[in-house]
TrEMBL record:
Taxonomic source organism: Bacteroides faecium
Name of the featured protein: Metallophosphoesterase
Pfam families xref list: Metallophos
Coiled coil start-end: none
Amino-acid biosynthesis keyword on record: no
One GO molecular-function entry: metal ion binding
Gene3D superfamilies per record: 3.60.21.10
GO cellular component, one term: membrane
């Protein structure tokens, strides 16, 4: 994956550096040591990038996941502000040349954006990634049985527990926040791990403390199958999935693999349906919606499906599911108000979406992949209240 991105990352790092060096550094100083000093951070970052892309083996990547994540933070901390400054000054060139507009406003704009970018990266990396946000959401449907009016569901998603190694107190904080909501039901919509079940070591007892009246239910996400890890054999990968499923059982979670459970409240009942990951290529497709919901016809149905694209591909046109809960997008871990760049990949990337009375809620996740960073798309604990 990184090898395919290498050229892009190389240009992202080097081109702004070359431009800013020729545009400013050469003109501001004739001292050789200052000019050399300018290049040292970029040379070190480039060396690290080359090593990770071409020389780091699988055991190194697994053992140093956090270090690689922090390297990525520093990569963007140095490269992104320079890119913004370079772009702004380049935009100012034709205005200065043909309209005699001073260069200063463009340089100042570039510097301002660069500073804002630095602040965002630092905040998102050191504070934002563990700034848990409890979101209160209401879903109303005339089909909801009366006894479930006011029923409270906490949804969690995309924990990516391997990214939290060394940060157990943050996961304890999350568990305490969830339990404080006193939910009737807790659901987890996939991507419990990054790659391997053993990432849960040291976290199983913490996650087992999640409590709800009707229990904790979960499904698998694309990462849970381990497709992004270099396994020694297909059998090793299959054994890892079995291990992950057994660990969830040990935590008291009820895994819905293309199956359903009936939730009872008073004299009424609803169906909680869960499918295995059902994504668009290149993401895995293991879902069996028809099989999972067999026997629930006519009931109010809540579907747990990791990938939100499943809603329009199959759920809406081929089923009568009332409400689907999904994750997967992370909102690309970057959000400004109601906007996230993930909208260019996922039309439904975060929040509630409705087609008539049928709904989809996309949770932007708790954890992170790659960058230990979240800005705007804070780690989400969704409290979904059902109403008639």
């Amino acid at each position: 994956m990184l090898q395919r991105l290498f050229i892009f990352l190389l240009l992202f790092l080097i081109l702004p550096d070359i431009y800013l060096y020729l545009r400013f550094i050469v003109r501001l100083t004739a001292k050789r040591w200052l000019r050399i000093l300018y290049w040292i951070p970029s040379v070190l970052i480039l060396a690290g990038l080359v090593y990770l892309v071409f020389f780091a083996n699988n055991p190194f990547s697994e053992s140093h996941t956090r270090d690689i994540g922090w390297f990525s933070v520093f990569f963007f901390l140095f490269a992104a502000p320079k890119l913004l400054l370079a772009v702004c000054t380049v935009i100012g060139i034709p205005f200065h040349k043909w309209l005699r507009v001073p260069r200063t406003p463009f340089i100042c704009t570039g510097l301002t954006l660069a500073v804002i970018c630095i602040i965002m990266i630092l905040y998102g990396s050191f504070i934002g990634r563990s700034r848990f946000e409890v979101k209160e959401v209401t879903y109303s449907s005339p089909r909801l049985p009366q006894a479930f009016d006011g029923y409270r569901i906490v949804q969690l998603s995309d924990l990516h527990i391997g990214s939290w190694i060394g940060n157990a107190p943050d996961i304890e904080k999350m568990v305490n926040l969830v339990n404080a909501q006193q939910p009737d039901l807790i659901v987890f919509t996939g991507d419990l791990v990054n790659h391997r079940a053993k990432e849960l070591d040291g976290f199983q007892e913490i996650l087992a403390r999640l409590k709800a009246k009707d229990g904790v239910y979960s499904i698998l996400g694309n990462h849970d199958y381990g497709p992004y890890f270099r396994w020694k054999s297909k059998q090793e990968q299959d054994d890892n999935l079995i291990d992950l499923e057994q660990r969830q059982v040990a935590m008291g979670w009820k895994l819905l693999n293309n199956s359903h459970s009936i939730l009872i409240q008073g004299n009424d009942s609803i169906a909680l349906i869960g499918v295995e990951n059902e994504g668009e290529p290149p993401f895995s497709q293991h879902g069996d919606l028809a099989g999972a919901k067999a026997g629930t016809d006519g009931m109010f149905q809540i579907l747990l499906s990791h990938n939100p694209t499943h809603w329009r591909r199959e759920v809406l046109p081929k089923s009568d599911v009332d409400l689907m809960l999904a994750g997967h997008t992370h909102a690309m871990q970057l959000q400004f108000g109601n906007y996230s760049p993930s909208v260019y990949v996922y039309p439904e990337w975060g929040g509630m979406y409705l087609e008539g009375t049928r709904g989809l809620y996309v949770n932007v996740g708790i954890g992170y992949v790659g960058l230990p960073f979240r800005f705007g798309a804070w780690p989400e604990i969704t409290v979904l209240t059902l109403r008639r």
